[in-house]
Design brief:
This protein is an alpha/beta fold and 154 residues long. The protein has six helices and seven strands. A hairpin with a 2-residue loop joins strand 1 and strand 2. The radius of gyration is 18 Å and the shape is globular.
């Protein structure tokens, strides 16, 4: 004789539903994002993802953060040049630099700071570096607590 399985109580279902990440606002058309994070290494391809993220942020009135992963030095200057046209166009944008590996830093920052949407380009590294580290969008997609937009960049 097999034991019967109990159905989860309504309280347990409610608690499980509350623990899942959901965007902060919803409209009749679906979720609305208030905080948008985009990863960039300052390259032209990454710039395409930054531009798309800026379009989304501006259309929704959201804040945009461009996140560079690496050492502060030259990366900040490159990213500041990349976002200058966005600031001039009225996008609320800031640049943030964090040390570490791209996929893990993107997940950590998106989780820690409560971002609603992460935007990434579909192309970045190539050759041996990509084989060794793996594709960032693939790694991020499995562990991200918010929505992910992958932009075709090349």
């Amino acid at each position: 004789m097999t034991p019967s399985r109990k159905k989860p109580s309504a309280a347990k279902k409610s608690a499980a539903k509350k623990s899942a990440h959901t965007p902060r606002k919803k409209s009749a058309q679906g979720p609305t994002y208030q905080k948008v994070l985009v990863g960039s290494d300052g390259t032209e391809r990454a710039g395409r993802a930054v531009e798309r993220a800026a379009d989304v942020a501006k259309a929704l009135g959201a804040n945009l953060t461009v996140l560079g992963v690496g050492s502060e030095g030259q990366l900040r200057a490159v990213l500041e040049r990349q976002v200058a046209p966005l600031t001039d166009a009225g996008v609320d944008v800031e640049v943030q630099i964090e040390p570490g590996t791209a996929a893990q830093v993107l997940i950590d920052v998106a989780t820690r700071d409560g971002y609603d949407l992460l935007v990434l380009g579909n192309k970045g590294m190539s050759g041996i570096e990509r084989l060794r580290l793996g594709a960032v969008p693939n790694k991020v997609s499995h562990h991200l607590p918010c929505s992910l937009l992958i932009v075709r960049t090349g």
